[in-house]
Specification:
Largest sheet: 6 strands, mixed
CATH architecture of the largest domain: Alpha-Beta Complex
Radius of gyration: 19 Å
Order of helices and strands: HEHEEHEEHHHHHHHHEEHEEHEEH
Shape: globular
Structural class: alpha/beta
Bound molecules: manganese (II) ion
Low-confidence stretches: none
CATH class of the largest domain: Alpha Beta
Number of domains: 2
Strand content: 15-25%
CATH topology of the largest domain: inorganic pyrophosphatase (n-terminal core)
Strand order of the largest sheet: 6-7-8-9-11-10
Amino acid sequence: MTKQPCPGLRRLLDEARRPFIVHHWDADGVASAALAWRNWAEPVATAVPSIGSYTWRAVPEPPGGADALAVLDYGIPGPEYEELERHIAQPLIVLDHHRVPPARLSRGAYCNPAAARGEDWAAASLLLHRVLGAPARGVDAGLAALGVVGDLQPFLDAGKPHPGLEEARRLAGEAGHSLQELREAAVRIDSCYRLLDEDCLRHAVRVAAEEGVEGILGDQRLREAAERANGLLEEALAALQGPEEPARGVRVYRLDMDAYVTSAVGRRLAAEAPEAVTVLVHRFPGSRRGFIYARSLARSLAPVLQRLRSRGLRVGGKEHVVVLEFQGDPGPLLEALLEELAECRHVK
Ligand SMILES: [Mn+2]
């Protein structure tokens, strides 16, 4: 068997029997929370960080009775977790596959082979499946594959090969699902966050933990959420402005809309131009805040992410995605992003 990616984790996992599980709001986060529930411990509650925000302050406080705080698939940089650890009484257990500066926790455990050793893990669900030694068949295999398909959906849709998708195909087969079925399940789960509906996400985790992908696909509430979210996405695509092309191979779109459709729209646009860098400037007119989302299927944006971070900017992302949060005028941040894209344009 392959080696355990985070050997230091075992003792803390064994000690916590009533964890509070906080997970990223996307399909990989939900699949990860469900795997933890099934193969580690029944949580005292599950929750997501404030949707769209990437900071330790967005992580909800553990409720009474929780004997650990577990944060899954939430790609904030290590130092943010060091800050979070100082603000809670329970041990903090972090499991992530985003390429960020690693954390050094004093009481808790930080499991992120991408941060620690530059390893590629296609999804947190895959990492968790391995770390927990979950069964390589049935519901657990299906959930491990679900997170991968959620995170790699743009590759799947563009017909671009990816080693993660091959692994997902194998696991999905063990669970009796096709990748297209998993894609549909991921889309339904992702509709919860697009509607900014946290109860919908709690519901999705419970259904996934109890009945896996099969349960997600058969669930009425998630089906309805997907229909409503689909309407929002169509609305967003119709309201979209652009593209402007401020540099060769960089396409900038703008959207003003009060719904969390940033990544859905960004992914759709990126799939249409797989060789380009797609940038979406999404403003929420009702708050004054918004996100600049950049995605490229052809290019690694990791160096861009690193350089923006070293400028002290609030930025998240992974290998092919960069997300900047703004308040008020997005102009200066967009400028900074375009500068770093130009600076790193020869990196494949
Ligand atoms: Mn993920």
